[in-house]
Amino acid sequence: MSNYDVLIIGGGPGGYNAAIRAGQLGLKVACIEGSDTLGGTCLNVGCMPSKALLHASELYEAATGGEFVTLGIEVKPTLNLAQMMKQKDESVTALTKGIEFLFRKNKVEWIKGWGRLNGPGKVSVSLADGSVRELQAKDIVIATGSQPTPLPGVTIDNQRILDSTGALSLPEVPKHLVVIGAGVIGLELGSVWRRLGSNVTVVEYLDRICPGLDDETAKTLQRTLSKQGMGFKLATKVSAANVADAGVTLDVQPAAGGAVEQLEADYVLVAIGRRPYTAGLGLESVGLVTDKRGMLDNQQLRSSVPGIWIIGDVTSGPMLAHKAEEEAIVCIERIAGHAAEVNYGTIPGVIYTKPEVATVGKTEEQLKAEGRAYKVGKFPFSANSRAKINHEGEGFVKVLADERTDQILGVHIIGPSAGELIGEYCVAMEFSASSEDIALICHPHPTRSEALRQAAMSVQGRAMQA
């Protein structure tokens, strides 16, 4: 039986970052991953390929939808979908190969197989050749991630009814794409295909898009996407799907009950969320039990069983690659005997639509529910010089600060480069900064970042440019 200091089950953002950090700290570590490539959902069929298509589709729309003409650039582009998919795949391959290099650099062993717990401190790995390899370690990290949540009555075949993986590799542009679920994945992938020429309809069970997002920001995003041509059927449920050679017929009705109507599409994307990947892990061999959703509980990343740790999508918190990475680093630091903490209050979230949405900290709705008195500062990108000159003035920056102490409690951005801009406020909140701290800092002109300062100034009622 092979002995290690740390065994990590799963090679996604949580697993591979945990393995690299363990290697840096001099621990004997192995990462168990049975897929052909490292990187998990994020690198292979999630974050990275979707961003490749988002970027390409934005450029295509700019060239075809009038923006280039406005700028005085006249072209007649032709969509080469096969090449668009090829460059996406090449980018993904380069990234996954990069992780293999980092494993070698940090003396991490990649065991190519599917791991399961086999009692305290033990892991059995089913290898590709059918053999089983037995391993043991003082500490075991479960980082198996998540998978798309199925929808009863709508069977995913990745031919006509797709999950997020299937929607990243369509061989043609759908005439009508129906997206079931108005969350991050559905809106991002729906945006890609709308820009490439699809008629896109989003069906959502709730009466709003992006549950958990700041209400005002969510309403602004929906209004913007609607203006771009995306249709929404909110407070609507899908009860059945009938597949034919040429497409799909969905049975939809009001979520509160009512008459059933049919919705025709040539492709359907099911994007109602993700669920933890915990089946077949041998949890019973050590006495671990999941909740109804398949999630494992953790206390400061420790399970109830000594020596077994839990990080990423398989446990509580937002299912975000950077949250998994943060937990991975802290988990390994603790295993190595170091002091480390995850500040969940400063983990940002980003929706990569156009405009982008980025948030960190509390929403107005959460602060009201807590009974906490707060002030609001807001600044529109339409008043920001750089955004205006680039014809991207839609959206705003909103800063929420404690009414008494002025400590920044939450920030919500919808607008250009929101995902990049939010980082400044993540740093500010990590240091418990006040809105006045940001308002007093000189920002370069002309940049979109000036909107961050102006929003902070607005908390004090002294925004100068709007």
Radius of gyration: 24 Å
Overall geometry? globular
Low-confidence stretches: none
What do the pLDDT scores average to? 97
Strand content: 25-35%
Label the structural class: alpha/beta
CATH class of the largest domain: Alpha Beta
Number of strands: 22
**Remind me, CATH topology of the largest domain?**
FAD/NAD(P)-binding domain
**In whole angstroms, how far apart are the ends?**
68 Å
Tell me what the CATH architecture of the largest domain is.
3-Layer(bba) Sandwich
Number of helices: 14
What descriptors fit this protein?
about 475 residues; alpha/beta; FAD/NAD(P)-binding domain; Enolase-like, domain 1; 3 domains; seven-stranded mixed beta sheet
